[in-house]
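Researcher: For the record, we're logging two predictions in this thread. I'll number them. Prediction 1 follows.
Model: Prediction 1, sequence and structure:
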Amino acid sequence: MKVAVNLQDTLTLNNGLAMPQVGLGVYKMTDEIEANFAIQSALRMGYRLIDTASLYENEQIVGDAVKESSLRRDEVFLTTKVWNSDQGYDQTLKAFETSLNKLQTSYLDLYLIHWPGREKEKYRETWRAFERLYSEGAVKAIGVCNFQVHHLEDLLAVCNEAPAVNQIENHPYLTQEEVRAYCREKNMIAEAWSPIARNKLASEPTLNHIAKKHGKSVSQIILRWHLQNGTVVIPKSVHPERIKENSELFDFQLSLEDMKNINALNKGERFGPDPDEFNNGF
């Protein structure tokens, strides 16, 4: 399994598109000055993936930061998501244009369905709009978030284009092996949101032992675990020192025993909503 060797290194999606394996998440970054500084700092450090969503209400800030950076648009991989209340064919197309305008770009690298909800027909119609945007070249890749295996099976049974990415809550207390294994089988990339579990695992003895052995922080150990699992990570921080720390993942390697011990921490414990129950906004 390929593992990124630097911040610009990529995984290849099922349509051949290169996606950075490490990016910056911007959830809850709504202070314009603070968020702009964080995004620009990340881009200067070498980050090339920025993950936002219409729900986050900061697409305009992300667009400004990318435009103000020294990078060309094609050097930054931009992801956003359609929110639940905007799902459906016509609503999705309208929401996409709104996001595109706020991000100040002519195309998206990746567009994701934020949640499946409880109505299959709803996300199926949303996906039909996604396929149109993809076929027209307005989006380079399309995918989903928080889809469990049964959601993916349902979508694959009716779609023309398979999702390239499934972004899920994923950390050592919620390893999501069943979903990740299904994604591997179907040639989808798994992407972890809340990859370090909102820092709730900082005192976990196993992780601290491994961190001490490698001379790294617990967060760096968890992020490296994700990378060696072939997962894309988008840790969030507004602090440049943390953003830098979260990028220093390429000068060490976890052993098979380390990986096994981290896998054994799984509790099936979510810190976010359960996709089978969450229906907010629909």
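Researcher: Logged. Prediction 2.
Model: Prediction 2, sequence and structure:
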Amino acid sequence: MLDETSTMRFSTAEPTDRGFRAVRLDAIKRLVLDNLGEPDLTVGKAAAAQRVTPRYVQMLFEAEGTTFSAFVLGRRLAFAHRMFSDPRLAKRAIGAVALDAGFGDLSYFNRAFRRAYGETPSDLRNRTLCEARK
């Protein structure tokens, strides 16, 4: 669970500003991965957990050519994709997988999934099941 008491250790950071930024970004990414299923995971909550400003978090991601929101969306979609690619999870409802991945809106999830992977979650699941039967 994401909380404002989450901290990070700097013991492995280089004593440079660039090193601290890299370590901080890594900690934020780990925080996102640890809280992926939280639908209210925001840049503000991640910043508060790291005791930095939301703008600082945004700048860290901008330096990598992305945004906090794009990173979260990408990780959530990848999580769902892994679940739909596992034939053992074929009975899990698409809505349940979407909720597990942190999506609160099933329509948005389906659109984002199709945009990212070129197929719907049910198409991927059906293809996975056909391949598993071979």
